[in-house]
Amino acid sequence: MSEDEVRKEEASRHYTGEEIKVLKGLEPVRERPGMYIGSTGIDGLHHLVYEVVDNSIDEAMAGYCDNIVITLENSEIGEICSVEDNGRGIPVDIHATEKKSSLEVVLTQLHAGGKFDENAYKVSGGLHGVGVSCVNALSDWMEVTVYRAPHIYRQTYHKGIPEADVAVIGDTDRTGTTVKFSPDFSIMERNSFNYDTLLARFRELSYLNKGINIEIFDKRGPEEKHEKLHAEGGLASFVKYLNEYKTTLFEPISFEGRKVIESENKEVSVEVALQYNDKYDEKIYTFVNNINTREGGTHLVGFRTALSRCLNNQLKKSVKYMKKYSESLEASDISEGLTAVVSVKIPEPQFEGQTKMKLGNSAVRGIVDSLVYENLTNYFDEYPENIDKLLDKVTNAAIGRIAARKARENIRKKSETGGLPGKLADCSEKDPEKCEVFIVEGDSAGGTAKQGRDSRFQAILPLWGKMLNVEKAQEAKVLNNDKLHPVIQTIGAGITRYNESQADHDAMDENGDEKTFDLSKVRYHKIIIMADADVDGSHIRTLLLTFFFRYMKPLIEAGYVYFAMPPLYKITIGKKTYYAYQEEEKQKIIDEHAGGDNSKIIAQRYKGLGEMEKEELWETTMNPETRYIGQVKLSDAEEADRVFSMLMGEDVEPRREFIEKNANYVSVLDI
Question: Among 144, 181, 178, which Cα is nearest to 45's?
Answer without folding.
Answer: 181
